[in-house]
Amino acid sequence: MKKMYLSNSDKVVGGVCGGIAEYFEIDSTLIRLITVIATVLTGFVAGIIIYIVAMLIVPKRSFF
């Protein structure tokens, strides 16, 4: 079963967009663009809160 993790190598702020891109095997720039557009269209506060919640909920990849 495939799991989503925060990206360690492709992150700008918290690794959420990079982790989503790795999970769906698509370019992270596309995910970041979609995130910015969705944040602007829904109001900045809602988008920022969703991003912070995702940073807290999505686990970090452990290498042990």
Automatic annotation (TrEMBL):
Superkingdom, taxonomy of origin: Bacteria
Subcellular location per the Swiss-Prot or TrEMBL entry: Cell membrane
TM regions (residue ranges): 33-58
Record's keyword terms, sorted: Cell membrane, Membrane, Transmembrane, Transmembrane helix
An annotated GO cellular component: plasma membrane
Membrane protein topology class: Single-pass membrane protein
Pfam assignment, any one: PspC
Domain Phage shock protein PspC N-terminal: 2-60
Entries under PANTHER family matching the protein: PHAGE SHOCK PROTEIN C
Protein name, as recorded: PspC domain-containing protein
Upper lineage: Bacteria, Bacillati, Bacillota, Clostridia, Eubacteriales
